[in-house]
């Protein structure tokens, strides 16, 4: 009876942990989508909402940290369970960074002048769609412990990198030809860089999901961001 009670309590802890990660992921994905909408439309109230809601993501990360410490201290998990718990702790930290990148994009919403003249504003939303879908799918992989989906998400990062390279070349040429646009163009380059980082961090989550599901490691990536 005691063993059954402990097992039930442990299952509840794991369910709570997965729920917190799912909530963080949903908020991060929403932040990316709304930050880009605010940027394209110049919608400052929408941008303000993204910035304010980032505190919720930060609070959820702190809650994950506390829960993981409690689980390890009280349940002494081993093997597969321990891998999932440690992976969840790392994933929470990565999602917090993704939320920060979305917040940084939102902060640029009011700083773009002459939106209609910037071709990258037609490319950035497509780039953001891929990055947001990576976040969405890698969280699905986490929930299902789906190593194959995690690998597929990781491979998709090449599309985000290709978008970034194209936008970078486009913006540099545009700034050379139109020096008066340098400030706004620089903000758009900053946005593209943040989206590229979101893609990188999604692949980092994929690595953690793969590890939790299989105990193995995916091939190292030399371009992995430090934070």
TrEMBL record:
It comes from the Bacteria. SUPFAM superfamilies: PhoU-like. The keyword Membrane does not apply. Its main location: cytoplasm. It is found in: Cytoplasm. It holds the Pfam family PhoU. Plays a role in the regulation of phosphate uptake. Homodimer. Belongs to the PhoU family. This is Phosphate-specific transport system accessory protein PhoU. It comes from Novosphingobium ovatum. The gene is phoU.
